[in-house]
Amino acid sequence: VYRARRVKDQQRVAVKVMLPRVAVDQTSVDKFLREIRSTAALRHPHIVPVLDVGSSEGIFYFVMEYCADRSLDYLMAAHGGKLSLALASPIILQILEGLAFAHEQGIVHRDLKPQNILLSSATHPILAKIADFGLAKHFAKAGFSGLTLTGTYAGTPLFLPREQIINFKYAKPVSDIWSMGATIYHLLTAQFPYEFTRDRDPIDVILNEDVVPIRKRDASIPKPLAAVIDLALSRKAKDRPQNGAELLATMKKALP
Question: Residue 111: pLDDT above 60?
């Protein structure tokens, strides 16, 4: 990702460049760009806008709004690895507003995680925006990454729901809900929903173990909030809130 200025108006932008790992034909390129342009059309205060997409000499580029304060994981690191509930609450609600809007438009993110939530402190409170809607997953699905499920473009296992491990092509809003729940869990505890160990493949853990209830990580988290987070992390997709709007509505009631 490069910081740049757009020539026509001198606007500061971020340019993400992605190089296919395999040879691709023009038909595949055109199909990929059509799919990405549908997600690039999303416009919401809590979604990073994609200003332009295209390809040149076999390299794909994506021009996006520049967010000066990096991503949520940097903010967490600056606060010792996790955020207080007071600081996290407005960020959580903003992210859910953006996610609810995307789901209403029929768009699924497929790779929600702290690194894909960008921040700006130019306003108060901090302004949070979701980045990279479907970008990595579309890239892998088109066959450009040359990677399988264990590759980085298949999603991040630490924030990936079980159904996406089982079915790589599964893409429904309810999976974003699990990833969002995992992100909030990590945001408040600095830990992950599963008990990962160095001697075990994280995918094996996701497939065969249960999520650790969040209050076992931190008993100070209010019970109503913990209940919503644990529900979002339900093993079965049918037991979770089904989309961003549902999770947003329950979260507003649960946050103190």
Answer: yes
Nearest to 189 by CA among 217, 159, 208: 217
> What does each C-alpha distance from 228 to 92, 110, 213, 222, 244 come to in angstroms?
13, 20, 11, 10, 13
pLDDT tens digits along 198-209: 888 888 899 999
Is 235 an annotated catalytic residue? no
Q: Which helix (H) or strand (E) holds 15?
A: strand 12-18
Cis peptide before 20 (omega within 30 of 0): no
Q: pTM for this structure?
A: 0.86
Element containing residue 177 per DSSP (H, E): helix 173-189
Burial of 209 (0-12, 13-18, 19+ CB in 10 A): middle
Could you please report the per-residue DSSP string of 45-58?
TTBPPEEEEEEETT
Quick check: 156 and 150 in contact, CB under 8 A? Answer: no
- From the list 21, 110, 215, 217, the catalytic residue is 110
* Separation of alpha carbons 71 and 128, rounded Å: 9
Q: How many CA atoms lie within 13 A of 228 on its CB side?
A: 19
